[in-house]
Amino acid sequence: MATRRSGPRFGHRIKIGLGAAIVLGAVLMAILAPLLAPHDPYRQDLLARLQPPVWAEQGAWKHPLGTDNYGRDLLSRLIYGSRLSIMVGVSAALLSAVLGSVLGMLAGYKGGWLQQVIMRFADAHLAFPEILLAILIVAAVGGSALNLILVLGVSGWMVYARVMYNLTRAVRERPFIEAAVSHGASDAYILARHVFPQLVPVLTVVCTLQVAQMILQETALSFLGLGLPPPTATWGNMLAEGRDRLWVAPWIANFAGLAIILVVWGINMLGNGLREHLDPKAKERR
Question: What's the pTM?
Fold first, then answer.
């Protein structure tokens, strides 16, 4: 019996630990990029262009992961690329969380016409593909870090609004909310002090998982030429630069793709572990 009960606990702890280690490593790499990068990520050396990784026949330790078509060091660009990709993903997810949570809680607590307006707009927005909406807006306003954060943040608020709406409706019926109302507490006070703290665990899980989604969307926009303009070092730009030379110099795109896969996998692992850890039903089974 002890072994059976320890299985789920062990599983979610492994997920949280492994995911947190990957995410923390990526964040530290982004913060310490000037110290970790062996070269200037924008310095061109045409005499060393398309140099393979160090383990290949013509590779050299000067450029451990090789160089791109302009002779720029891929390891340095990969390290610096984590800065913008992670910053845009985290900032856009936080913007979506704030916007969607406020609207979802208002709709769930107030009800009536406000609920109908917010939730019907969210339903209409959900019917429109997020990436297509982002492509249309970025193509119109241009690609920059601020524009990407605003576009991705606005395009993802519906997920939070729907989750917060359902949870707020459930919390609204609890006795402590009725007690606060009977004592004359304002709606803003009740939402901030009584409703929102009950939603933080679920909001944390949703926001963690959405960071991975935002990183993928930023990468897709950069890959399509709608993200930060070249030669800005981002993982999406590195994928786009390696696309035309995939058969000649596959390492240009491969390393950026592996970095994206690893970070997104780590974020999803962390989010799933947190979900299992905070799930009341899972706690009962443990």
Answer: 0.83
